[in-house]
């Protein structure tokens, strides 16, 4: 990467860190703390939230019939995403040590906590569990795919993608065949940032 691009990437990482710190201030706004990765709400907030609970029937009756009829299609995706989760985890456990790529920590991506919220009815809890599991697995597998791509084909696209993955900035510029040939082996093992985060 040239120095200006590196500078911009560093500014972006600094802003991401700042955003995370700001989001953590929200804990105070909604009267909860996180202790040993567990969320603890203040008792008065739990009582107030439970008073506002609605029944599952009332929740579902707020949707049009056409929306309710799509539920089997949504839930039919649980088996494929579960299989993706299992097979991707097996792939990583076999291949990443051979490639010398740091493994992706599943718990950093598949975060299941919203379905436990006290102010959700049973149907909302099930929906939240489904969405956080599904999107978590997609993010987990995407990170695995990004690290795999860095090993096998770390070249940027000519047409810049709408959304880039976490390893994209470590790729060679499109058309830079000289650097590609000279530095491919170095880029394949350039995971110091991931290793530092894992410590």
Fold and architecture overview:
It is a single chain. By secondary structure, the chain is mainly alpha-helical. The chain has one domain (about 55-199). It is about 60% helix and about 5% strand. The protein is built from 9 helices and 2 strands. The chain has helices spanning about 5-30, 45-50, 55-60, 65-70, 70-75, 80-100, 120-150, 175-190, 190-199; strands at about 30-35, 40. The protein has a two-stranded antiparallel ribbon. The longest helix has about 30 residues, at about 120-150.
Care to give the gist of this entry?
By secondary structure, this protein is mostly helical. It has nine helices and two strands, in the order H-E-E-H-H-H-H-H-H-H-H.
| Rg on CA atoms, Å | 22 Å
Helix content: 55-70%
Q: What is the first-to-last residue Cα distance?
A: 26 Å
Low-confidence stretches: none
Order of helices and strands: HEEHHHHHHHH
By DSSP (H or I, 4+ residues per run), the number of helices equals 9
Number of strands: 2
SSE layout and pairing:
Elements (H helix, E strand, L loop, with lengths): L2 H27 L2 E4 L2 E4 L1 H9 L4 H6 L3 H4 L2 H5 L2 H22 L22 H31 L24 H12 L3 H7 L1
Helix pairs in contact: 6-7
Distinctive features:
single chain, about 200 residues, mainly alpha, 9 helices, 2 strands
